[in-house]
Specification:
Length: about 200
């Protein structure tokens, strides 16, 4: 209901409906006039807002879509651009910013963060992890073995061990399990394959 209350603060907008599952949004678009959708990336029952937004853009390209999330998973931002979303907003931002994003998007503007927000991960900020280290961390959190990670990244297993050891040195966590728990709890990584960010 937080998003609804934010929308209602805008004098230019009226809430047409609220859905708890992203995969119900396409059908709702066919029922009446919708100008803009605030699409949460992670919704009930693992319903993927990115996939739903992509489908809506195919059938209703005139509808503006603002992707919103509290997850700091960098791949979400990349995929939102690829599927044609109009704007992107992190929930940790002030609600007054969301009103500006909504009203500006309706006017044809686009709003995209310059980068994914950083979080403290042990002794370092998340931005201090390299791309290879971040991808290794994502795969670790999905339960992949070193061999599986190496195959996915097209590197040797020794490289995977190096990436993991570097992350442990940087963050100060004593083992990979502690590192994974921290990454997930801080919303830096969304484990599991339910959100296929490579589509």
């Amino acid at each position: 209901m937080y998003l609804c209350s934010s929308v209602e603060k805008s004098g230019e907008c009226e809430v047409a409906g609220v859905l708890t599952r992203a995969d119900a949004a396409l059908a709702r678009c066919s029922e009446g006039h919708i100008d803009l959708i605030l699409m949460d990336i992670c919704t009930e029952n693992d319903s993927d807002g990115l996939t739903a937004a992509e489908e809506i853009k195919k059938f209703y390209p005139r509808i503006k879509i603002v992707m919103v999330t509290s997850m700091l998973e960098g791949r979400f931002l990349d995929r939102a651009r690829r599927i044609g979303a109009d704007s992107f907003w992190y929930k940790d931002s002030p609600s007054s910013d969301l009103i500006d994003v909504i009203e500006g998007t309706l006017q044809g503007k686009q709003f995209w963060p310059d980068s994914v927000p950083t979080v403290q991960l042990g002794n370092v900020l998340s931005c201090n992890l390299s791309d290879q280290e971040m991808e290794t961390l994502r795969l670790l959190c999905e339960g992949k073995t070193n061999a599986e990670i190496a195959a996915s990244l097209h590197v040797a297993e020794s490289s995977v061990r190096t990436y993991i050891n570097r992350m442990l040195e940087k963050t100060g966590y004593p083992n990979r399990n502690r590192l994974m728990v921290a990454a997930v709890s801080k919303r830096l990584v969304v484990p599991g394959n339910q959100f296929d960010t490579k589509k």
